[in-house]
Specification:
Length: 214
């Protein structure tokens, strides 16, 4: 009996030890499962937070209404700019037309003002012609007026052509007639000038009317 009781006691202790080890293993497994779940939850939360942060950092796509409003605003700005350019060009065109009209009407003002002193000299000469007894003095006065007039023309870029003796050139001369040349050297050349020609700077102001030798 004593041996049986001792066996039962040892078996109970062993059983308790065995049960304790199983419970410990179960508890440990539960702790591992719990830790695994916690880790998975933490990873999921971290992933969600990262995704949310990426969404916040990414530029927000504009809606169709916003894009349409921006396009309409740009169109209105371009229309305003075009109207401004058209008005500016119209003002420029009117200004050019006005300046051209003024040039046509008053372009010769400077030349006419330069000629007025010559007219004054001619009037004074005419007043003294009736009373003058010295023809040579009158002639000298007219020559001075003529030279003064040529100086006025030269100041405006007008110079007379030297036609007599020059080769006939249709760019400068207008032949009014042909006449037998006095010698062979004058054939095809200007032997007489019936109306003097003038140049305005580098262009012909008036063609010289000449007689050409044949």
């Amino acid at each position: 009996m004593k041996f049986g009781k001792e066996f039962v006691r040892r078996f109970s202790v062993q059983k308790q030890k065995t049960m304790s080890n199983k419970e410990k293993e179960t508890t440990k497994e539960q702790e591992l499962d719990t830790e695994k779940v916690v880790n998975e939850t933490a990873e999921t939360e971290n992933a969600n937070e990262q995704e949310t942060a990426n969404e916040e950092e990414a530029p927000k796509e504009k809606t169709t209404e916003e894009l349409l409003a921006e396009a309409q605003a740009e169109i209105e700005a371009l229309k305003t700019q075009q109207l401004y350019k058209q008005a500016e060009f119209e003002n420029f065109r009117k200004r050019v037309i006005a300046e051209k009209a003024d040039l046509i009407l008053n372009g010769g003002k400077k030349v006419l003002e330069a000629m007025l002193p010559v007219v004054d000299d001619l009037e004074r000469a005419m007043m003294h012609m009736d009373k003058a007894e010295d023809v040579a003095a009158v002639k000298e006065g007219v020559d001075l007026i003529y030279k003064k007039f040529l100086q006025v023309l030269k100041a405006q870029g007008v110079t007379p052509m030297e036609a007599t003796g020059a080769d006939f050139n249709t760019d400068f001369h207008e032949a009014v007639t042909q006449f037998p040349a006095p010698n062979d050297e004058m054939k095809g050349k200007v032997i007489d000038c019936t109306e003097k020609g003038y140049m305005l700077n580098d262009s012909v102001l008036r063609f010289a009317k000449v007689v050409v030798g044949i």
